[in-house]
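Ticket #252: bound-state structure for adenosine-5'-triphosphate.
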Amino acid sequence: MIEASDLTVERGGKTILRNYSLRLARGRTLAVLGANGVGKTTLINTLIGLIKPRSGLLSIGGQVGFVPQLFEVPFAYSALDIALMGRARHLGLFGAPGKRDYEVVRHYFHMLGIEHFEPQVFNSLSGGQRQLVMIAQALASECELLVLDEPCAALDYKNQDKVLGLLEHLRETHDMTIVFSTHMPQHAVEIASDVLLMTSGNSYVCGPTADALSAKNLSALYDLPIARADFDGLSKHTYAPVFRHDGANFDG
Ligand SMILES: Nc1ncnc2c1ncn2[C@@H]1O[C@H](COP(=O)(O)OP(=O)(O)OP(=O)(O)O)[C@@H](O)[C@H]1O
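RESOLUTION: The complex was predicted; output attached.
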């Protein structure tokens, strides 16, 4: 589904990614993690074709749906209008959405529990509510590869759980391939088959979650002690940062 080799990507004359290679088979879910500014959005925008790499090869085998990080629109579109835009490539000659387009969008509004957003002005929704509408828009496009830039960043725990559940369901039932960036390692633990830990613009760890996602690798990634915690009786685990907040870094 995704084959990238030796990608080098520049922004504003600066090399952000150097020699990144990545392979993701259909039906896999990749979580992209790394510090602020390391290049996650740059990589994602390259994968969806918004940024052209300076060098390297990139091949994407399927229709791509995209959920951006923060989104505002210039006009007073309703949430329903915004989600219907995801149907653009399915629209007929005159470009007006038909019965099936409304059905598809409403199906995903229902799955996300956001039916009541339909008539509301998109820009008047909260950041998290807009994020849910944008997820519905991408799903309505009926894509094969779904790429999401921090899809849960503005969501409360319940909605994070809902979105994670939906992504897992889509992978299981539609064999969808999913790439998402996150600052929450727990989300990778829950639904990602693979992780890409972006240490810097030219070094990274990529592999199956069970091998590559460890307290040691996360501690190195965030330059902070990260501990693994196992939930008794649930056969689940999580990762938690050991915050220092000792003020030492602010001296002098
Ligand atoms: N349009 C641009 N022009 C110049 N530099 C850019 C541009 N877009 C991004 N950059 C730079 O590229 C680097 C990577 O940015 P990017 O947004 O990909 O990081 P990120 O890992 O997604 O960060 P965050 O976790 O904060 O969202 C940053 O140093 C940023 O300043």
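RESOLUTION NOTES: Residues 11-12, 14, 16, 34, 36-42 surround adenosine-5'-triphosphate (CB under 6 Å).
TICKET STATUS: resolved
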